Amino acid sequence: MGQVSRNVAEHAGQLGLLVGRSARAFATLQVSPRSVLQQIYIMGVQSIPIVLITAILAGIVTSQQGGYQFQGAVPLYVLGSIVVASVVLELGPVLTAIILVGRVGARITAELGTMKVSEQIDAFHALGRDPVAMLAAPRILAGVIVVPILVAIANVVGVLAGMVAARLTLGLGFESFLYGARLFWHNWDLFYSLTKAVVFGFSIPVISIHMGLRTSGGAAGVGRTTTASVMFMTLTILILDALFPPLLLQ
Amino acid sequence: MIQYHDVWKAFDAPVLQGVSFGVDEGEMFGIFGPSGTGKSVLLKTTIGLIDLDRGDVTVEGDSVYRGGKASLRRVRYRVGYVFQNAALFDSLDIYENVEMGLPEEELRGMKRLDVTRRVWDALELVNLEPAQVLRKLPSELSGGMRKRAGIARAIVGRPRILLWDEPTTGLDPVNTAAVERLIVRLSQELNVTSIIVTHDIQGGLEMCDRVAMLEGGHLRFIGEPDAFRQSSDPVVRAFVDRAAAMAALDEVEV
Question: What is the model's pTM?
């Protein structure tokens, strides 16, 4: 138990330091805009196809399952509300984040872990450069920018996919679907969804960078740390997701 | 010029236990020792790449561990570090890698043409053909060429001190001899102080003005190469004999 507490305290302290040093790098204008744009491209633009596929499938499945449960019991236009609420409040942000844990977070940990074990991080220090300013801060800023955009795209596409699926399989017209969607819509839901996205977009790069910079033990160490990092990020996303309703939906 | 003051460092086990010695200006200093005795750790302490448990290192009067960030920054700008496996940045081409060796403050005030000239000159100094390698990624170069590019990055900022961490490890005998000649030539041409951590005892003894041997976290020997060769210390003798036997074995295999 004592060892676990020490580990948690150590991770928390190092994460705090990483965030603080990244904030200082932004404040002192040490972060290269070119690096940020490069990360936005890698993390954001290159993730669009997988995010689209996930959102389409999530929308279709939600629509189908909702239709199966409600057919004959309640007016089918309620399905519009179910799909919109499920996608915007939960599936859009969480599935996008989980996809990015695998596609972006694992990549960052493996990349920085490899740099650590091959002394490239030491080389930054030796050359008088700050690896946090050059490697960490651009990734964190890019995450905070791109994840809300990807979640917004996932929300729209997921809802559209659900709407089309409802039309094709349940015969629910677009107007009825949209009527149901509008009936229970709260603007707050969009704020909630995007707030989640910002928090996830911050957490994924911060954890993956932190884990990457802790890597030791050669190639095997990179593999071990990447696996641990994916677990750490996934659990963090799910725990944060569980904290959101009591904080923002009451 | 460089002073190690009672340097202590332990990871899971003690690595350095109260190591103290100095390196004079213009000297070429070799550090030998069996694997795992903390040679590379000691070299890294020279520019504060590893936290110490106790002790300090001073470079031209600036403290690495007690002088604050400004002092450490001054030290790092004065020192060029050649990493064991070059440690070139994978995602940058050779031009960008070598350019990173220029101090940030200096780089900001330089014209692009001047930067290119400095990078070009550094690559020529290490016998690389700039036109052929500038736009290549490190993964597109051979091990020997990567090592030379790493040396170019270390010298492009015109350091006063060069630290060499196992500069010939992983190289074949031909490249080993070429890199050793390069180390001697660069140290003379650039008029720098060099500390070389190496497994290649024979090469090290030929290159260096003085050598030290680490054993069990302690400084076992420090002195001139001839004194090292003729040392009556049984640990030093055993190490020299083992190294000679390994060298002979290498020659037979070649």
Answer: 0.87
